[in-house]
C-alpha cells in the first residue's frame, strides 16, 4: 500500500467526499437552535438544502469521511480493506477549517462526519469525538452536526459525543441479519442494534431531564437515523418495509434511509445489476416510508406475504386505494382527517387545509384544487357535495388505466415490460371507454 | 356607479397606507380597488386616487392586523405584500376587509374558500418558498476587506425576509446581500444590527476584488460538489427541478 505523506487538502477532500457519497443521509432537519450571538451558526428545524449535485440529491452538509482507511472488508463498500484505492485522512484542524469557511460562505448547513475503521472502533470513535469537540469549543461552531456512531465503540464515548452533536446514526447496512453475515463478515446485527438502543434511551432520558431542568444539555436533539442498502441481498419489499416499521416503532428513529445498491466492487457474493441501481424500487420504498410516518399506514396494509413487492407502475398509495375501492368515494366536506389522508392526491398539508376551510364554507373541486390537492389523481376517489367531478366509474381497471395515462416518469424498459399482458381483444382501442375529454365534449356538444 | 381605484406605491408601507386611506375615505368598499401598478392602462369609468405613502398610517394598519388577526395571519399578509405579482394589493385589501367583519378573525387564513384570501395564501406560499430556497442558495464571497458579499436576483422582494436568519447565523461577520433587480441591499455589521439600503448608485464592481483565500475555497467547494455526486445515478433533470437555473447563475459551484 502506498501512503502519500504530503497530500493537499484539495486531494483529500476529493477522495474523502467521494468515499462518503454512498451515505445517503444529508438532512439538516430536526432541531431549532437560535444563534447565541457569539459563535457562528444556528439550526433550523425544517432543514435547508444548499445545493443539488448532478444526481439531483440535496447537498446540505459537508459530507466527508475522516479517513477512508478501514480494517473491515464489507463486500459492497468501496473502502473495504481488500480494495486498492487511494487512502487519505484529514487532520482535525483541516476538518474544522473546511467546515468553518464553507459555513461562513453559506455553502453548507453543517458537518456530516463518518469514517472508515482505523485500528479499532474505539480509536476511530475517539478521533471523531476529538474533532467535533475541537469544532465546538475551539472554533465555536454552533451549526448542525451529524456523526456516525461506530458499532462496537464504547458506550461512554458515544454518550460524550451525543451531547455535542445534533444527529447520530448507526447504519443497519442490510435489512436482515443473514444479509449482513454474507456481505459484511466483520459486522454483526447485535453490535449495530446496541448503540442504536443506547442512543434511543439516552434521548428519552435527556428529554425527561429537560422537562425539569431548563438548561440541561440535550442529547442528540435531532434524533437518530439509519440506512440500509436495497437490492444487494434478496430481501423483498415487504421485509424491508417491516424492518423500517419496526425501527420507527421500537427504536423511535427519525428517519430510515434506503440506498439503491450500486455496483462498485467485483465480488461473486454481489448481484449483477445490468439495469443499473434499482432506483425505482428505492423511490417506491421512500413513498411507502412517508405513508408509514405521516399517513397512518401500517406495513401489512401496503404489502403482504402474498404480495411482497410494490407495484412498479403505481405509487403505493394509489395501489392501496385501488385494492380498497369499497372505501371510496370520500366526501370532501365530511370525511375526517385520517380518511382524507388516504385519498391519492391529498397530502398532509392539503388535508389539514380542507379540514379547516370547510368549517367556514362548503368546498368545491376548484377550492380543493387551489388548496394543493392533485385533482388528476384524486378525482376518481372524492366527491364534493355528493357529486363526482366527472362521470367516472369506481372500477379498478378503469381507474388504473386512467392513472397510468398520467405519465408518471417511469423508465422506458419498465414501461415496455408492461403492467399486464394485453391481449388483442381487450385493447382499449377496440372498445374505448369514454375519456374525461369525451365527457367534457359530450357536455358541451362537441361530438 | 364609478369604480374608485386607489393607486399606491409598490411596497408594504404603500399598500398599508392605501388600505388606511380607503377606510378614511368612507366610500362603499364594493366599488373600490387597490392597485400598486404604475400607470399603464387606465380603466374606463374609474376614478383614480393617488396614495402618498405615510409611515404612521402604515404602522397603524400593521398594528391593527397583528392585534386583530394574530401574528400568523400577519406574517401571511406581510409575505404576500412582498410578492412580485400585480394583483397582491387588491387581494390584501379584500382580505383585511374580510377579516375586520369576520366573526373568527384569528382564523382568517383558514377561509380558503374566499378567492381573495386564497390568493393571499398562494402569494404568501410562493414568497415563503422562495425565501426558504434562498436561505440555502445565497453564496457569500469574501472580499479583500473580509466583508462577505452575496448577489441574488429573486422574483419576490425577499431580502427583508431572509436577513434575520443570516443575522442570527453570522452575528460577528460583516456581510451584505444585494438584490440586483431591485437595487436593494441588506447590510449587517459584525456584532450589530442589520438594515436595508435602496440606491441606484451601487457600484458592484468592487464585488470582484475577492480575497486570496476566496478562490481557494471556491475551488474546494466546486471539487466537493463534483465528487459528492454518484455517476450511476446522474439525473440533471432532477437537479434542475430542485435547483432552478435562475438560482444557479449566482452560485459559485455552477460558475466555472
Automatic annotation (TrEMBL), chain A:
Gene3D superfamilies: Aldolase class I (3.20.20.70), Photosystem II 12 kDa extrinsic protein (1.10.150.320). One of its GO terms (molecular function) is iron-sulfur cluster binding. Coiled coil: none annotated. Residues 64-202 form the Radical SAM core domain. It holds the Pfam family Radical_SAM. Keywords: Iron, Iron-sulfur, Metal-binding, S-adenosyl-L-methionine. The keyword Metal-binding applies. This is Putative DNA modification/repair radical SAM protein. NCBIfam families: rSAM_link_UDG.
